[in-house]
Specification:
The complex is a heterodimer of chains A (131) and B (360).
Chain A: E1 9-10, E2 15-19, E3 25-29, H1 31-37, E4 40-44, E5 51-52, E6 57-63, E7 67-71, E8 76-81, H2 91-94, E9 103-107, H3 119-129
Antiparallel strand pairs in A: 1-2, 2-3, 3-9, 4-6, 5-8, 6-7, 8-9
Chain B: H1 8-13, E1 17-21, E2 24-29, H2 33-42, E3 45-48, E4 53-58, H3 62-69, E5 83-89, E6 95-103, E7 109-113, H4 118-129, E8 135-138, E9 142-148, H5 152-156, H6 165-169, E10 176-179, E11 182-185, E12 194-200, H7 201-213, H8 221-230, H9 267-276, E13 280-287, E14 298-301, E15 304-314, E16 319-327, E17 333-338, E18 341-348, E19 353-354, E20 357-358
Antiparallel strand pairs in B: 1-2, 3-9, 4-7, 4-8, 5-6, 6-7, 9-12, 10-11, 11-12, 13-16, 13-18, 14-15, 14-17, 15-16, 17-18, 19-20
Chain lengths: 131, 360
């Protein structure tokens, strides 16, 4: 069973969101997602200052096997990216919710946070797709 | 549920992540594909390759049949135990499959073909065999294990039946020995030294357990793919198929043109292509910028576009490498299209790592 921290929000694309004190939102992929992808060898992140729309493919995580898009869960402006991942993409596997965060967004529309899943909902969502 | 090898439960017990591979439930990795890859380069690992197909060919016309069936010439197998890599072609020179054929002490041959092409290979071989006094029999109930890596031969031989120790010690690359249904070849698909062993299923289970006890760890198909890619070894269905010839697939060296009067299926088409000069050639690629090269990506060269046939991250080199088919005149600098961006790359020989060493 994969780890699902309680203070985060989740999407059906297996991304997590943490609402920071300054109102920005940190985004990463869940433990389930990193496990399914396997060992990451390359991460491509958006540019700082880039405007992204909800659902836009704005990052790519690549394992030895395949590349997967990461979709922006919110509309807004990218305020920060995790530059460490350029040299250490494996941080996403080792620490998906902490050191392996991907990017941070200043949201344009707070309402978009409403449709996200909490821990219980994501756990149920996962149990529906896992054996 | 797909086909399962006799080792299916062993894989689960070893913590394998199972995936579908050509209709077979096979282990992708047992925790870390990268660690398994590096372990085979530095030490040893064992792969279950029981999904591959063993076909035994016997009869008074066995040699004549294989000389007609295969683009390489089994006349090169001058004594029992020798093995030969060859393509099996259609009349247009397209590659139906690649395989290894061994001459056996009983005068027959053992042919080992790919899993995904099993049914079509057997059907094709039996169709061609109709004009010869020959039997083509898929062998059933075997386990095939590939023990690979610099320490593999030393670790594996003591675990073989005692009658085979001496003969197995004496094997040179691409040679095989056998005794009492156990077949041992000094071959592999990793660019490292090693053995491939075919043995009855119950003996195979026992051999697997003994290898693990002797600290030869299991490695999955994921590592097998990156190891073969680093070694520049083609994967059927990805690097070549029935739509291309060996001359366009880096496999011209496996076509035996001499003797000139040996007729083999596809010969006329290959000769015509050779005379005209193949339009494409098979190369390796190194990426200069950031990204990972993948199958199907476009290669932009001064001589026109080509395509990546296999691409991945190389655990040994810690960079991305690829095999590609490009216009014959392409050389030197090129670009690869990755997610709508053109990234600089360089054309190199299609072999990157052999025997643990990164090639220049």
């Amino acid at each position: 069973m994969s780890e699902i921290p309680e203070d985060l929000k989740y999407t059906q694309d297996h991304e997590w969101l943490r609402i920071e004190e300054d109102g920005s939102v940190t985004v990463g992929i869940t433990d389930h997602a990193q496990e399914a992808l396997g060992e990451l060898v390359f991460v491509e992140l958006p540019e700082e200052g880039q405007d992204v729309g909800k659902g836009d493919a704005c990052a790519v995580v690549e394992s030895v096997k395949a590349a997967s898009d990461v979709y922006s869960p919110l509309s807004g402006t990218v305020s920060d990216i995790n530059g460490d991942l350029a040299d250490e993409p494996e941080k996403v596997n080792g620490s998906p919710y902490e050191d392996g965060w991907l990017f941070r967004i200043t949201p344009q529309n707070e309402d978009e946070l409403e449709g996200l899943m909490d821990t219980v909902a994501y756990e149920e969502f996962l149990s529906g797709i896992e054996d | 549920m797909g086909n399962r090898t006799p080792l299916y439960q062993m894989h689960l017990d070893a913590g394998a992540k199972m995936v579908d591979f050509g209709g077979w439930d096979m282990p992708l990795h047992y925790g870390s594909q990268i660690e398994e890859h590096l372990m085979v380069r530095a030490d040893s690992g064992v792969f279950d390759v029981s999904h591959m197909t063993v076909v035994d060919v016997a009869g008074s016309d066995a040699s004549a049949f294989l000389q007609y069936l295969l683009a390489n010439d089994v006349a090169k197998l001058t004594k029992p135990g020798k093995g030969l890599y060859s393509c099996m072609l259609n009349e247009q020179g397209g590659v139906i499959d690649d395989l290894i054929v061994y001459l056996r002490a009983n005068g027959g041959y053992r042919v080992i073909v790919n899993a995904a092409t099993r049914e079509s290979d057997i059907a094709w071989m039996q169709k061609v065999a109709a004009d010869f006094d020959v039997s083509v029999d898929p062998a059933e109930g075997y386990v095939m294990l590939a023990v690979q890596g610099p320490t593999a031969v030393k670790k594996a031989i003591p675990l073989l039946p005692a009658e085979l120790h001496e003969a197995a010690e004496a094997l040179k690359p691409f040679q095989a020995c056998e005794n009492d249904n156990v077949f041992v070849a000094r071959t592999g698909y990793t660019g490292e030294d090693g053995l491939e062993v075919v043995l009855p299923a119950t003996d195979g289970l026992e051999f697997w357990v003994r290898l693990l006890t002797e600290d030869v760890k299991p490695a999955g198909l994921g590592a097998r793919d990156t190891l073969r890619l680093e070694a520049g070894l083609n994967l059927y269905g990805q690097d070549m198929d029935a739509s291309v010839t060996p001359l366009e697939s880096g496999l011209a060296w496996t076509v035996a043109w001499d003797p000139a009067d040996r007729d083999f299926i596809g010969r006329a088409a290959l000769e015509a292509q050779k005379a005209a000069g193949p339009e494409q050639r098979f190369v390796g690629l190194l990426l200069q910028g950031r990204g990972i090269m993948r199958h199907g990506q476009r290669v932009v060269t001064a001589a026109g576009d080509g395509e990546i046939t296999s691409g991945s991250f190389s655990p040994t080199m810690e960079q991305t490498i690829a095999l590609a088919r490009v216009p014959a005149a392409a050389d030197g600098e090129c670009q690869v299209e990755i997610r709508n961006k053109l990234i600089d790359a360089r054309i190199v020989k299609p072999a990157f790592v052999r025997k643990g060493q990164i090639l220049d």
